[in-house]
Amino acid sequence: MAFVCDAHVHLYLGYDLVPAARAASTRLDLLFREACGDLSAQPVRICCLAERFDCHYFRDLREGRLSLNAAGAQCRPCAEDGGLCLTFADGEQLILIAGRQINTVERLEVIALGASPEIADHALSFGAAAAAIRDAGGIPVINWAPGKWFFSRGRLVRTR
Q: Which of 144, 97, 90 is CA-nearest to residue 116?
């Protein structure tokens, strides 16, 4: 089984989820085919959310407070915690994984992959945020960007 994943996706309440998810699904298919050259494989498509402190799209969708607003589209929990499976009318699927973007005291952006702990921006140090993410059942992830890997922030990341 093949997988293709975008590990840093932002969704906001103004978005209509089904067209946004369809566009993500189509783009993931294109990237998969370019990378693998396999035109027949149907990869599992995954989008990992990086929700800001003031966004709760995943939670609201999981708890039924958001509607898909599309005939035939369905949303159900995945077998594992932290995931939702979106199924479109034609049977195509996209998996959404819970995730939270946390800005630390040191101005590092850490993603809580697979969990959505309620942590205010700039409230915790890098080490404390990583520990809180692990305590919530998530995986702390640092996105690559030159400013995060050089100078004082880069030294901080390397020490953890």
A: 97
